[in-house]
Amino acid sequence: MSDKKNYSNPKYFTNRELSWIDFNDRVLEESRDKGNPLLERLKFLGITQSNLDEFFMVRVASLAKLAAVKYPQPDASGLTAEEQLRAVNVRAHEMLIKQYTTLNRSLIPAVQQIGVHVKRATNLTAEQFQFIKSYFHDELYPVLTPMADDSSRPFPFIANDALNLAIQLTPSDGGDRLYATLQIPDVFPRVVRLPGEENAFILIEEIIKTFVGQLFVNYNVKESVVFRVIRDMDLDVAEEDTSDLLKEVQQQLKLREHGKVIRLEVENTISKKLLKRLNKELGTPDFAVYETSGPVDLTFLGKLTSQIINHDDLKYSKFTAYQPKELDSNHDIFAAIRSHDWLMQHPYNKFDSVVEFIRQAANDPDTLAIKMTLYRVSGDSPIIRYLGRAAQNGKQVTVLVEVKARFDEQNNVHWAKQLEKMGCHVIYGLIGLKTHCKLSLVVRREQGGIRRYMHMGTGNYNDVTAHFYTDMGLFTVNNDMGIDATNIFNMLSGYSKPPYFHLLHISPDGIRDFISDKLAQAGDEAKKGTPVTVRMKMNSLSDQKMIEALYKASHCGVHIHLIVRGICCLKTGIPDVSDNITVHSIVGRFLEHSRIYSFDIDGQKSVYLSSADLMTRNLNRRVELLFPILQPDLAARVLQIYDTMWQDNVKTRVLQADGSYKHIDRRGLVPLASQTAFVEDATQRVQRAQADAKPTAPTEFQPMLSPENQPNPLNYDDGSESD
C-alpha cells in the first residue's frame, strides 16, 4: 500500500531565515552562560553581531529584492518574501534588545569587577583626558574628513559596515540647522588603551565625538551620533554571459560595495529629526532601523578581549592537539598511509598532517602530480606555498580555486593569480556551480606502478580555521576511491562525464540520490520490523525534499538522530510524521562543522563523511563529495565520536515540538560536554606520546602554522551563510 501522506504540508516546515535567527540566539545564550569563561562570553556576544551582519548582507538582502518585485511564490513554510522580510526584522529587533541587555546588565558589570573599563570621555582622569586630546590632534585630526550635506553638496555615499557620525550643527552667528557626516576611519584601532590603569580603554568614536566641534570652526555642534549601514553584499555573477569568470568576479566585487541599504543601526540618543533625515537619505524603511542602547557594532568586543592583560584565567585554557608521529615531518607520510587509512578529527588532531601531506608531495621525487580543490584558505596559507614549490619542482599541479566563495572572493582571486605565477594550472570553478568539496590527490610512481594517495575532508584547507572548526578527514590509498578522485578532477578540468563512481558520491544530484535511496531502503526495512537507526550530523538542514524523505522514513518506523548546528527547517513531534526524529544542536567553544551520515540496518552499519549539508544549494548547485569510511576501526571511531556528541548534556539544545530549543535536564546525570571530552582525550594522547617519545634530531623544516585557539568571529557561522 502506497504512502499517501502529504509531507509537503507547510505546517511541517520552519522558515529557513527564522531558523537561522534561532541559531544565532543559541550563540547569544553562550554569552549569557556563566559557565563559560567571562572573556569568552564577550567574544560570543561579538560573534552574534558578525553573524547578523553577514546574514543581513546576504539572506535578508535576497528577501528584500524578492519583496521589492512582489515575488509571489511562498517558501516551504508558506511565507512570502514580504512576510519573511517583516518577520525576520521583528525577530532581529528582539535579538537587538537581548544583545544590549546582556552587554549592559551582565557583561559590563562583570568585567568592571575584574578591573576592565571601557570609559566614556566624561569619566576619564585628567591624565587620560589629556591623552585622548593629544591622540585626536596628533593622530586622528589630519585624517578625518567632514562631509557637509546641503543643496550644493549632496548626502555622501556611506560605505557598508563603516562607522559614521551623523552631525547636526548651527552657525555661531545664528541661522538654520545644518547637517554633516563624518566617517570614522578604520585605519586606526577601534579600541584604544588608556594610560594610568592596567585595563582601561576607550572607543575611537568616543574620542572623535568629544572633539568633533574642532572640525567645524565657527559652528556649534548640537548633536553627533554614531550610525552604520549594512548593504546588499550578495555577489551576482552572470556566469552564462561571461567568458572570463575571474574578471567578472572582480568587476562584481567593485559593484557590490554600492548595494542597497538593508539595515541602519544608530545610537538611540538620536533626535527624531536627525533620524528622519538619515532614513530619507539612505532610503531605509522604518522596520530596518535599529536603535542601540550602547556602542554601535558589537564586533569590537572580540578586539577588546584580545587587549585585556593578566586575565588568561578568564579565557578558554589552551591545549595541544594530538598528531600521530607517523604523520609528522620526521616520518614518511606516504608509508604511513600505505599501511592503513587514517582518520583525522580537527581541532583535536593537528591540521599539520594535512599540510605535511602536501609538503612531502612537493619535495618527493616519486610524486608526479598533485591535484587539489581550494574553497577557503588562510591569508598566509602554507598549502599555497607548497603547491607552488611542487610546480617549481616539476610536478604537475592542478588546483581548483573557487573564486565565488562568498566573502572570500578577493582572497581567492589573489591566491589563484599567485598559483598561476608559480606554475600551477588553476581552474576558476565551474559555470553555474560552486566547487565546495575538499579533495586532494597525490599521484606517485612506485615500484608496483602508479599509486594514488588521497585526503578527503568535511572542512576547508584552512590552517587558521582548523584550530576552531570541528572537522574530520580521511587519508587513504584505496584504489577505487583513487579512480573516482581522478574522474572528479577530469570532470572539473575538462569535459569528462563519468557514467558512474565506484565509492564516492558527488553533487550535483549524486548525494541527493544516494541519501534518498538509503532513507527509502531504511524505511522499507523498518516496515518489515527490522530495527533501523539513521544518524546524521550537519551544519544546516533546509532542503524540502530531503526533509520529506526523513519524514517518510520516520513514518515507516526508522529512528532518526540528527545533530544540526544551525538552520533546521524540519519540525519534530508531528504525530505519525516526525515522532521518530530527534534533533540536537551543539553550540560551544568550537564551531561544529563536520558532516556525518550513518545508516544502521539490523546492526549492519555504513558510515560516510561529507562536505555537504542537506541544503538545496549543496545538493543542486555545488560540487560536493560524500565518501565512505571503510576501515572497520575508523568507522567505529566515527560512530564513537557521534555518540559522544549525542550524549552531550551541557552544550546540547534539543528541538521541541513547538520549535523552541531547550537544554537537556541534567538532574541525576553526570555532566558531559563533548568538545571538552575531546580536548581532554587529545591532551591525554599528547601526554602518553611525550612519555613514550625518544629524543630525535630536529628536522630541517617545521610547518609554519598559525597559533591555536585564535577564533575569527566573522567565520563562526561558516556553514550557514558563507560556506
UniProtKB/TrEMBL annotation:
Pfam families: PP_kinase (PF02503), PP_kinase_C (PF13090), PP_kinase_C_1 (PF17941), PP_kinase_N (PF13089). It catalyses: [phosphate](n) + ATP = [phosphate](n+1) + ADP. The active site is at H436 (phosphohistidine intermediate). Keywords: ATP-binding, Kinase, Magnesium, Metal-binding, Nucleotide-binding, Phosphoprotein, Transferase. Residues 686-723 are annotated as: Disordered. ATP binds at N51, Y469, R565, H593. Catalyzes the reversible transfer of the terminal phosphate of ATP to form a long-chain polyphosphate (polyP). PANTHER family: POLYPHOSPHATE KINASE. This is Polyphosphate kinase. It comes from Secundilactobacillus hailunensis. The lineage of its organism: Bacteria, Bacillati, Bacillota, Bacilli, Lactobacillales.
